[in-house]
Amino acid sequence: MRVGAILLLLGACDGNMVQQPRADPYEASALLPDGMVMQSPPPGTIDQGAPVRAQAAQRPPMSLALLERGRERFNIYCAVCHAYDGSGNGVVPGQGFPHPPSFHEPRLRAVPAAHFYEVITQGYGIMYSYADRVSPPDRWAIAAYIRALQVSQARRQVTEGGDAD
Ligand code: HEC
Fold first, then answer.
1. d(C-alpha 159, C-alpha 16), whole Å
2. Ligand 1 centroid, distance to 92 Cα (angstroms)
3. Residue 88, domain extent
4. Closest by alpha carbon to 125, among 92, 101, 152, 89?
5. Residue 149 and residue 103: Cα distance in Å, rounded?
Protein backbone atom coordinates (compact mmCIF):
# COMPACT_ATOMS: atom_id res chain seq x y z
CA MET A 1 0.00 0.00 0.00
CA ARG A 2 2.73 2.44 1.06
CA VAL A 3 4.93 1.47 -1.90
CA GLY A 4 1.98 2.05 -4.21
CA ALA A 5 1.50 5.58 -2.86
CA ILE A 6 5.21 6.40 -3.32
CA LEU A 7 5.13 5.12 -6.89
CA LEU A 8 2.13 7.31 -7.59
CA LEU A 9 3.97 10.33 -6.20
CA LEU A 10 7.08 9.55 -8.23
CA GLY A 11 4.97 9.29 -11.35
CA ALA A 12 3.51 12.73 -10.67
CA CYS A 13 6.96 14.21 -10.03
CA ASP A 14 8.34 12.96 -13.29
CA GLY A 15 5.68 14.73 -15.33
CA ASN A 16 6.29 18.06 -13.57
CA MET A 17 10.08 17.92 -13.80
CA VAL A 18 10.09 17.45 -17.56
CA GLN A 19 7.63 20.28 -18.17
CA GLN A 20 9.14 23.09 -16.09
CA PRO A 21 8.02 26.54 -17.11
CA ARG A 22 11.24 28.33 -18.06
CA ALA A 23 12.65 30.30 -20.95
CA ASP A 24 15.64 29.19 -23.03
CA PRO A 25 18.28 31.81 -23.94
CA TYR A 26 17.56 31.81 -27.68
CA GLU A 27 13.78 31.53 -27.31
CA ALA A 28 11.59 34.28 -28.79
CA SER A 29 9.92 36.57 -26.27
CA ALA A 30 7.10 39.03 -26.84
CA LEU A 31 7.91 40.82 -23.57
CA LEU A 32 11.66 41.48 -23.80
CA PRO A 33 13.57 43.93 -26.03
CA ASP A 34 14.99 42.44 -29.26
CA GLY A 35 12.13 39.90 -29.13
CA MET A 36 14.50 37.33 -27.59
CA VAL A 37 14.98 35.97 -24.06
CA MET A 38 18.76 36.46 -24.04
CA GLN A 39 19.69 40.14 -23.78
CA SER A 40 22.92 41.79 -24.93
CA PRO A 41 25.02 43.41 -22.18
CA PRO A 42 24.26 47.14 -21.85
CA PRO A 43 26.63 49.50 -23.72
CA GLY A 44 29.81 50.20 -21.72
CA THR A 45 29.80 46.81 -19.95
CA ILE A 46 33.35 45.76 -19.06
CA ASP A 47 34.41 42.13 -19.43
CA GLN A 48 36.06 41.55 -16.06
CA GLY A 49 37.92 38.49 -17.33
CA ALA A 50 39.67 40.47 -20.10
CA PRO A 51 42.60 41.90 -18.05
CA VAL A 52 43.21 38.46 -16.52
CA ARG A 53 43.25 36.80 -19.93
CA ALA A 54 45.54 39.50 -21.32
CA GLN A 55 47.98 38.94 -18.47
CA ALA A 56 47.78 35.18 -18.93
CA ALA A 57 48.75 35.54 -22.55
CA GLN A 58 52.01 37.20 -21.49
CA ARG A 59 54.14 34.14 -21.05
CA PRO A 60 57.50 35.13 -19.57
CA PRO A 61 60.63 34.09 -21.50
CA MET A 62 62.45 31.03 -20.20
CA SER A 63 65.26 31.83 -17.77
CA LEU A 64 67.04 30.30 -14.81
CA ALA A 65 65.29 32.77 -12.50
CA LEU A 66 61.90 31.63 -13.87
CA LEU A 67 62.76 27.98 -13.23
CA GLU A 68 63.96 28.73 -9.71
CA ARG A 69 60.79 30.65 -8.94
CA GLY A 70 58.79 27.75 -10.42
CA ARG A 71 60.61 25.20 -8.30
CA GLU A 72 60.00 27.24 -5.14
CA ARG A 73 56.26 27.68 -5.88
CA PHE A 74 55.83 24.07 -7.01
CA ASN A 75 57.42 22.78 -3.82
CA ILE A 76 55.12 24.99 -1.73
CA TYR A 77 51.80 24.40 -3.49
CA CYS A 78 51.98 21.26 -5.56
CA ALA A 79 54.54 18.84 -4.10
CA VAL A 80 52.34 17.74 -1.18
CA CYS A 81 50.31 15.79 -3.73
CA HIS A 82 52.41 15.64 -6.89
CA ALA A 83 55.69 14.94 -4.97
CA TYR A 84 58.97 16.83 -5.48
CA ASP A 85 59.75 14.69 -8.53
CA GLY A 86 56.27 15.00 -10.08
CA SER A 87 55.56 11.27 -9.71
CA GLY A 88 52.24 11.89 -7.94
CA ASN A 89 53.43 10.14 -4.78
CA GLY A 90 53.25 13.13 -2.45
CA VAL A 91 52.39 12.89 1.24
CA VAL A 92 48.67 13.67 0.82
CA PRO A 93 47.66 10.99 -1.71
CA GLY A 94 47.14 7.66 -0.07
CA GLN A 95 45.62 9.27 3.05
CA GLY A 96 42.19 8.78 1.57
CA PHE A 97 43.00 11.19 -1.26
CA PRO A 98 43.51 9.77 -4.77
CA HIS A 99 46.90 9.84 -6.47
CA PRO A 100 47.36 12.47 -9.17
CA PRO A 101 48.77 11.21 -12.47
CA SER A 102 52.55 11.22 -12.84
CA PHE A 103 53.89 14.18 -14.86
CA HIS A 104 56.16 11.64 -16.54
CA GLU A 105 53.42 9.74 -18.29
CA PRO A 106 53.48 10.16 -22.09
CA ARG A 107 50.20 12.10 -22.27
CA LEU A 108 51.39 14.79 -19.85
CA ARG A 109 54.78 14.97 -21.56
CA ALA A 110 53.03 15.68 -24.83
CA VAL A 111 50.71 18.48 -23.62
CA PRO A 112 51.77 22.11 -24.15
CA ALA A 113 53.02 24.04 -21.08
CA ALA A 114 49.83 26.10 -21.34
CA HIS A 115 47.93 23.02 -20.14
CA PHE A 116 49.73 23.26 -16.77
CA TYR A 117 48.85 26.95 -16.66
CA GLU A 118 45.21 26.05 -17.32
CA VAL A 119 45.11 23.31 -14.68
CA ILE A 120 46.50 25.70 -12.04
CA THR A 121 43.98 28.36 -13.10
CA GLN A 122 40.86 26.23 -13.49
CA GLY A 123 41.61 23.14 -11.44
CA TYR A 124 41.25 19.73 -13.04
CA GLY A 125 38.77 16.99 -12.11
CA ILE A 126 38.95 16.67 -8.33
CA MET A 127 41.94 19.04 -8.08
CA TYR A 128 41.01 22.52 -6.94
CA SER A 129 41.99 25.71 -8.73
CA TYR A 130 45.07 27.49 -7.36
CA ALA A 131 44.16 30.77 -9.08
CA ASP A 132 43.73 32.59 -5.76
CA ARG A 133 47.12 31.45 -4.45
CA VAL A 134 49.33 31.35 -7.54
CA SER A 135 49.60 34.54 -9.64
CA PRO A 136 49.57 34.28 -13.48
CA PRO A 137 53.37 34.83 -13.80
CA ASP A 138 53.96 32.19 -11.12
CA ARG A 139 51.69 29.76 -13.01
CA TRP A 140 54.02 30.09 -16.00
CA ALA A 141 57.02 29.64 -13.70
CA ILE A 142 55.52 26.42 -12.31
CA ALA A 143 54.63 25.23 -15.82
CA ALA A 144 58.25 25.78 -16.89
CA TYR A 145 59.48 23.90 -13.83
CA ILE A 146 57.16 20.92 -14.51
CA ARG A 147 58.63 20.80 -18.04
CA ALA A 148 62.13 20.78 -16.53
CA LEU A 149 61.13 17.95 -14.17
CA GLN A 150 59.85 15.96 -17.13
CA VAL A 151 63.06 16.46 -19.08
CA SER A 152 65.25 15.54 -16.11
CA GLN A 153 63.27 12.36 -15.49
CA ALA A 154 63.45 11.35 -19.17
CA ARG A 155 67.25 11.85 -19.05
CA ARG A 156 67.57 9.66 -15.97
CA GLN A 157 65.68 6.85 -17.70
CA VAL A 158 68.04 7.05 -20.65
CA THR A 159 71.19 6.98 -18.48
CA GLU A 160 69.81 4.09 -16.48
CA GLY A 161 69.19 2.21 -19.69
CA GLY A 162 65.39 2.45 -19.40
CA ASP A 163 62.81 3.48 -21.95
CA ALA A 164 63.10 7.17 -22.84
CA ASP A 165 59.34 7.53 -23.39
C1 HEC B 1 45.63 18.28 -2.79
C2 HEC B 1 46.38 17.57 -3.79
C3 HEC B 1 46.86 18.35 -5.00
C4 HEC B 1 47.57 19.51 -5.03
C5 HEC B 1 48.08 20.31 -3.86
C6 HEC B 1 47.80 19.80 -6.43
N7 HEC B 1 47.23 18.85 -7.22
FE8 HEC B 1 47.36 18.71 -9.23
N9 HEC B 1 46.19 17.06 -9.20
C10 HEC B 1 45.72 16.45 -8.08
C11 HEC B 1 44.87 15.32 -8.45
C12 HEC B 1 44.17 14.36 -7.49
C13 HEC B 1 44.85 15.30 -9.86
C14 HEC B 1 44.04 14.36 -10.74
C15 HEC B 1 42.66 15.00 -10.87
C16 HEC B 1 41.67 14.19 -11.66
O17 HEC B 1 42.08 13.54 -12.67
O18 HEC B 1 40.49 14.23 -11.31
C19 HEC B 1 45.71 16.38 -10.29
C20 HEC B 1 46.01 16.63 -11.61
C21 HEC B 1 46.96 17.55 -12.03
C22 HEC B 1 47.47 17.67 -13.38
C23 HEC B 1 47.14 16.73 -14.54
C24 HEC B 1 46.01 17.23 -15.40
C25 HEC B 1 45.76 16.24 -16.53
O26 HEC B 1 45.69 16.68 -17.69
O27 HEC B 1 45.63 15.02 -16.25
C28 HEC B 1 48.36 18.69 -13.39
C29 HEC B 1 49.16 19.20 -14.58
C30 HEC B 1 48.41 19.23 -12.05
N31 HEC B 1 47.55 18.51 -11.26
C32 HEC B 1 49.18 20.29 -11.66
C33 HEC B 1 49.22 20.80 -10.36
C34 HEC B 1 49.98 21.96 -9.98
C35 HEC B 1 50.85 22.75 -10.92
C36 HEC B 1 49.76 22.15 -8.65
C37 HEC B 1 50.29 23.25 -7.78
C38 HEC B 1 49.95 24.60 -8.15
C39 HEC B 1 48.89 21.09 -8.20
N40 HEC B 1 48.57 20.30 -9.27
C41 HEC B 1 48.48 20.92 -6.88
C42 HEC B 1 45.99 16.79 -6.77
C43 HEC B 1 46.64 17.93 -6.38
1. 66
2. 12
3. 61-159
4. 101
5. 8
Out of 2-6, 21-25, 114-118, pick the least confident. 2-6
Give domain status of residue 9, yes or no.
Answer: no
Best residue among 72, 78, 107, 132 to mutate for probing ligand 1's pocket (most ligand atoms within 8 Å of CB) is 78
* DSSP secondary structure code for residue 85 in this structure: T
Q: Does any ligand 1 atom lie closer than 6 A to the CB of residue 127?
A: yes
Distance between CA atoms of residues 69 and 28, nearest Å: 53
Domain total of the chain: 1
Full-model pTM = 0.71
**pLDDT tens-place string over residues 51-96:** 767 766 688 899 999 999 999 999 999 999 999 999 999 999 987 8
